[in-house]
Amino acid sequence: MKAAFIREPGAASVIQYGDVPKPEPQPTEVLVKVGAVAVNPIDTYIRAGIVKMPLGNPHIIGCDLAGTVEAVGSQVRRFKPGDRVWGSNQNLFGRRGSFAEYAAVGEEWLYPTPCCMTDEVAAAGALVGITAHLGLFLNAGLKSGETVFVNGGTGGVGAAVIQLAKAAGAKVITTVGNDTKKALCESWGADCVLNYRDEKLDDRIREFTAANGGLQVWFETQREPTPDRTVGLMSNRGRIIVMAGRAARPEFPIGPFYVKDLRMFGFAMFNATPAEQRECAEAINAACEAGHWQPQIGKVFPLSEAAAAHQMQEDNTLAGKGTLTGKIVLKP
C-alpha cells in the first residue's frame, strides 16, 4: 500500500511517499480503508522531533482518519466490515500513523461515522473536536448560559469550541482578523465576534460580559498566552483552559487569580483515556446530527503531497502566514 512516512525526524521535506506493507489487524484492531486524513500542529511537532514519541522505521505519520472498515480482529465487537468510522490518536506512543491507504487501529480509538459526516468532515473534526470537548466539559465543566471566550474562532480548535459550546447552550465570544472570518464564526452561532486588532478589544469583551460579571470560561489556543489580561476579564470562579504554548513562560498574576477564586486547567488531548475520548466523540456525532457540527476545511491535498501539507500547517502555526482558514485534509 501507499503511505506517507519518515525515517528520521526533521523538516517537512523528510516526509516520503511510497510503498509499505499493508497492516494485518491484531485481535483488538480494526483494519480501515482510509478515505481521508487531516493535519494537526501536533503532527508537525512529532515529525520535527519537537515532541518526542517512539518512532518506527519507517514511521507512518498522522493522528486523524476516517474511512470504511475492511476487516476486524477476532476480539473486536463494536464494528464489522462495511461500517464507516472515524478516529484520532494514531501516530502517538508507538501507534502507527494514519497517512496511508489502510490503517490498523485499536477498536477503542474509533467511532461510528454518522450519515451527516463525509469522511473529509469526520477527519477534519477529529482531533480538534475531541480537544475542544475535553477542555469545555471534562475540564471546565461548561454549563448552559455561561459565556466562553476563545481566541482565533476560525482555527481548528477555535471553530470546534464555538460549535460545541453553542450546542450546549453557552454564549461565545471569539476573535478574528477580517470580515470574512467574522461571517464564518457568526454562521456557527458565535454571539460576539471581534477583530483582534481592535484597540478597544478588552473593553468590548467587558461590555458584552458585564451582566455576568465577566467570562466564565477562557479557552486559550494561542502559543503566547497573556495571563494578566485573561485574569482581569474573568468572572469570580471562572475557569481558564490552557492547551497550547509549550515554550511559553509568562508572568502570572497570583493575587488577582486567587482573590477571584479562579481555576486553571492544563491538558493535552492525547492524555485522555479512550473512554473519555469516546464520550467526546459521541457528543460530536450528536451535534452533527442536530446540525451543530460543520468543521471548516481550508485545503485538500492528495496523500502524495503530505510534505506540502505539513509545510502549509507549519507556516501557519509557527510563522503566522495566514494562508489557511480551517483544516488541511488529505485523500489517499
Note the total helix count.
10
Q: How much of the residues is beta strand, in percent?
A: 25-35%
Q: Mean of residue pLDDT? A: 96
The helix/strand class is alpha/beta
Elements, N to C (H/E) = EEEHEEEEEHHEHEHEHEHEHEHEHE
Poorly predicted parts: none
CATH homology superfamily name of the largest domain: Medium-chain alcohol dehydrogenases, catalytic domain
Strand tally is 16
Radius of gyration: 20 Å
Q: What gross morphology would you assign?
A: globular
Here the CATH topology of the largest domain equals Quinone Oxidoreductase, Chain A, domain 1
Do you know the CATH architecture of the largest domain? Alpha-Beta Complex
Largest sheet: 7 strands, mixed
* CATH domain class name of the largest domain: Alpha Beta
What portion of residues is helical? 25-40%
Distance between the termini: 10 Å
* Tally of distinct domains: 2
